[in-house]
Write a sequence for this structure.
């Protein structure tokens, strides 16, 4: 099965929690989209990254968003380009006031999962979304929080689908070299652990 016609975009969204964070501390989500059009202009690439930035780094909204006190960037690539791929467009965000401390461990995240028609191996994907600094962190992810994390995925699909060309969120199968348009999203009430996001040790106490 060949990939669908259109330009297949790889979009990396990086969240930076504090201005003092080094690249090791940044959190990155990778998304795939299909333009459905045979070509994409520079302006259209830019519109895609700007639209996604508007979802992730909004300062208000019913979905999970990070613009209150986190910064970051959105970078788009054309999957057809040989690696290392050149950037097609990028969009950055700087908050009005950076967070100076975090009220959650960096390694916890809510797993937003998605699939195409059937939840099969080559037709599903996921991203790991951190809390924002205004979230209340409990033992599990509350119902309201689950809906917020779920909302980031559905809002993303809505805004890219309103662009010209109309972009479709897809799952890209590396093994099959095929794409699958996303039809379903889901989250559960369990925090996932991303150990690579753990903060570095800065101090310790000892005895004796």
């Amino acid at each position: 099965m060949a990939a669908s016609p259109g330009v297949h975009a790889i979009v990396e969204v990086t969240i930076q929690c504090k201005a003092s964070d080094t690249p090791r501390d940044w959190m990155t989500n990778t998304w795939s989209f299909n333009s459905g059009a045979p070509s994409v202009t520079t302006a259209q690439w830019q519109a895609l990254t700007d639209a996604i930035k508007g979802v992730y780094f909004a300062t208000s909204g019913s979905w999970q968003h990070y613009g209150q006190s986190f910064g970051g960037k959105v970078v788009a690539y054309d999957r057809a380009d040989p690696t290392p791929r050149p950037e097609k467009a990028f969009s950055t965000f700087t908050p009005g006031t950076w967070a100076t401390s975090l009220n959650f461990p960096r390694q916890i995240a809510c797993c937003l999962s998605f699939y195409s028609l059937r939840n099969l191996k080559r037709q599903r994907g996921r991203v790991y979304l951190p809390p924002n600094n205004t979230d209340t962190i409990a033992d599990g992810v509350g119902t309201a929080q689950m809906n917020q994390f779920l909302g980031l995925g559905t809002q993303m699909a809505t805004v890219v689908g309103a662009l010209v060309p109309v972009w479709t969120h897809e799952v890209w199968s590396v093994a099959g070299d095929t794409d699958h348009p996303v039809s379903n999203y889901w989250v559960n009430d369990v925090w996932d652990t991303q150990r690579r996001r753990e903060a570095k040790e800065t101090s310790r106490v000892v005895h004796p």
Notes: The longest helix spans residues 143-161. The mean pLDDT is 96. The beta strands are 8-16, 27-34, 71-78, 89-93, 108-115, 124-129, 168-173, 178-181, 184-186, 192-193.
